[in-house]
Structure formats: structure tokens, C-alpha cells
Design goal:
Tetracycline Repressor, domain 2, transcription, 0% strand, 2 domains, mainly alpha
């Protein structure tokens, strides 16, 4: 059992080289997309050997998800408590790591088509990239429930994914880039009225 765990735990790249490789991977995903990304392309961009990459990451999916989960260009939104659902959503969505950051949106654009075809990428993406971000979002809505900002009978789980779903739809289906104005329109005209449910304002 110990032996199998040791096999699964691949050695880290020494010094700051791992961060450089991760940053290079994010940049290549943003430029080429997941399908066209190769270990050779990342090795060239990072000025590293392909053998170095494979010693640390056994597959392209492992490397890419590790990169977008940890690299400086795709930070995890901070769990801030502003005292209101609107304030929390604005802070998360318009701040560092939010929808208006060019790098996260360009990276997601590079992955979106491959996520439907590559089960390994989809699993790793959901577990290591989406899950931590969804946890932050859940806390925001749980606090809103506790403050009485969300009406009884409101489907909180569905509501919590509505903002990112609409932003992604605008970005990748309608071709409308995320802006602070668009985010505020969705929050004020969709999320907050839906959160109140049948309550009077």
C-alpha cells in the first residue's frame, strides 16, 4: 500500500522551476487551447526538457489542471464577507481572479471544448479547479441564507451557479466579453431578485 502511494506521488520540480512551468502551461493553453497543446510546446515555452515534465506530470490533463489551479494568472477568488450577498458577489466576480481577469477567461476558453470529450480532463478540472471555487461560492450563499437575504423555497444550489453560467454564456456563445457592467447587471437584475423569491423587496 505504501509502495503504490509512493508511485502515485511524483517528485516535484526543484526550486522555482515548477512555477515557471505552470505559468508557461497557462500561457500555452490561453494561446493554443487544450487540444493543440503538447508537452513539447510547454517544454519549449518553459525552456525545460520534456522528460522533466513527464517526471512530474504523467499526462497532459494532469499538467494543465495543475497549472490552472495553482498558477499566478488564475488565483482562487478570496472568500470575503462584505456583509451582503451583493457585496460578496461583486467582490468575488470583479476582483482579482474574477470574471474580468483576462487570463482566467482565456484559459477557460482554451479548455471548454475539450472538457466535453476528455473524461480525464473533465474529472481533474472538476475536482481540482472547480471544486475549490464552488466551495467559496457556497459559503457566500450560505451566509446570505443566514442573513435572511434569500427567500424560503429558493433553490440555492441552482442560484449559486447562475452568475457564472450567464457570464460564460455571454463570453463564449454571444461573444460578449465579461465587464464589470455586465456582472453588475446580472447580479442586480437576475441574482438578487431570484434570491428574494416571493419575498417583497
Amino acid at each position: 500500500m505504501v509502495e503504490s502511494a509512493a508511485v502515485r506521488q511524483r517528485p516535484r520540480v526543484e526550486g522555482g522551476r515548477e512555477e515557471e512551468i505552470l505559468d508557461a502551461t497557462v500561457a500555452v493553453v490561453a494561446e493554443l487551447g487544450y487540444d493543440r497543446l503538447t508537452m513539447d510546446a510547454v517544454a519549449t515555452a518553459a525552456k525545460a526538457s520534456k522528460a522533466t515534465l513527464y517526471r512530474r506530470w504523467s499526462t497532459k490533463a494532469d499538467l494543465v489542471v495543475d497549472a490552472i489551479s495553482r498558477a499566478k494568472g488564475c488565483p482562487l477568488p478570496e472568500d470575503v464577507d462584505t456583509g451582503s450577498l451583493r457585496g460578496d458577489l461583486v467582490s468575488m466576480s470583479c476582483g482579482n481572479g474574477g470574471f474580468t481577469d483576462e487570463m482566467p477567461m482565456s484559459v477557460i476558453a482554451g479548455l471548454v471544448t475539450a472538457l466535453h470529450r476528455d473524461p480525464d480532463l473533465q474529472k481533474a478540472f472538476q475536482e481540482r479547479f472547480l471544486a475549490p471555487r464552488m466551495q467559496v461560492t457556497r459559503k457566500v450563499y450560505e451566509r446570505a441564507v443566514g442573513r435572511g437575504e434569500i427567500g424560503p423555497g429558493v433553490d440555492v444550489e441552482l442560484l449559486s451557479v447562475t452568475l457564472p453560467a450567464l457570464i460564460v454564456h455571454h463570453a463564449y456563445i454571444l461573444g460578449v466579453p465579461p465587464t464589470d457592467d455586465l456582472i453588475l447587471r446580472v447580479i442586480d437584475n437576475v441574482i438578487l431578485p431570484a434570491a428574494r423569491g416571493s419575498q417583497t423587496s
